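Board notes (copied after class):
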Amino acid sequence: MNHSLDGLTPSSVEMPESLDELSQTLATINSSGKSTVLWGGGTRIGVGNIPSGYDVALDLSKFTGEIEHEPGDMTVVANAGITIGTLNALLAKEGQRLPFAVRNAAEATVGGSVASNAPGRRQSSTGGIRDWVIGMQIVLADGTVTKSGGRVVKNVQGYDMHRLHTGAFGTIGVVSQAAFKLLPLPPEQQTIIAWFSDLESAREVGMGVVNGQFVPEAISLISGSLARQTIEAAGETHPTTESWVLLVRLGGGVRSIERQVNEVVGSAGATGAEGYAILSDTMATAAWSKLDEAESASDLTVRMTSLPNATVAASNDILSGESETGHSHSTICDLGFGAMTALVHLANDADAVKVANTITGRISKYPASYVIEKCNRQVKRDSDVFSDVGNSISLMRRIKTQYDPSNTLNPGRFAGKI
C-alpha cells in the first residue's frame, strides 16, 4: 500500500500486530516528537484536512487478532484491523449482522470505520456506528492503553468515552478494538425502484414511507445523471426527461415484506410515478452498488447532515446550480437519516475550489453541517473540509491538548484543522 497522503510521504511505515507493539510504537513516536497518520483499509483516508505533520504512517491493517463473538448475547469484539466484510461474514453464519453498513466493506476496517464514523445507507433504519458501539479499547498518543464501556449491553462502567472517539478521526487516540451490539439478519429483503418527473412527488412518497407504519432498511432519493444510471443498473428503461429516483430496501418476514411492498408501490402509483419496479436480488444489488460506485468515481463529494426536508431542498438547489458551475452534479438523499451527498464530476481540476465553494455555500443556507469527503489538494489548501463547528472548537482544542499534548496523532486533519 502506498502511504502517501495529500502530497506528503512519511519517512517510515509501522505495522504493529499486537497491542504491546502498538503501544510501544506510539510511545516511541510520541517521545521522539514525531507525528503520525493512522491507516486502516485506506477507504476513507482521504477524508480530512492536509496533515500539518506526517513523519510515520501507522498502519493497523495487520492488527487483527481473534474475533470474539457471543451469539447468545448478540455482541462481538474485534480488533482495529479486521475488515467489516470479514466480520459480517462471520456473523452471518449465526444469522446476525452489524447494525450499520459502510462502503467498500471488503476493505474498510473496524478501526477506520469507527474513527471516521463511516456512513452507510442503512442509517435510515438503524442509525450509525456511534449508536452501536458498547465498548472500546483506545491507545493514547503516549502509548497508554485505556478502555471505555464493556462487552455486554448492560455495562454501565464509567462515561461513554467511546462516543468521544467515534468520529474523532483518530486525533485523540487510536481505536485499537471495538465491541458492538448486533442485530439479527432479516429473513427477507426486497428493493423497489420508482422514478418521478418532479421532486415534490418523489419527496412526498419518500417521506410518506419514512413516516409510515414500518421502517425501511434503506431509502435514498437520487437526482442528476446518477438517477438515470441507477434506473439502468436496475434493468429498467429510463425516461428521456430528468428524473428523481426513489430506491427503497425493505426487510422482514415474507408477509411483512408483502405488505410493505404493496404500500410503497401503491403510494408511488397514487402519486403519479413515471414508473416503478420490484427488483430481483441481482438487480437490487446492482442498483445499490451504483450509488457506491458513483461516490468512489466522483471528483468532488460533499456530505451534508440536517433534517430530511432540508437535505431534499439543498439537493434541488445544488442540482439547479449545475448550469452555474458547468459540471455534472448528482445527489443522494438518505431520507430516513437526514443526510445528502453531492457528487460532482469535474471537467477540469482548476474549477475545484469554485465548485466546492458553490456547493458548500448552498448547503450553508440550511441548518446543517457538512464534510467535503473527497476533493483535490487545492480545495483543502483553500478551506477547512469540515464545516464550522462554532463555539465548540475551543472545547475540541482543549480535549485535543488534554489527550495529545504533543500533537502526535493526525495533526491538522480534523475540524478546525486540529
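Comment from the instructor: The radius of gyration is 22 Å. Residues 298-382 form a domain with the Alpha-Beta Plaits fold (CATH 3.30.70.600).
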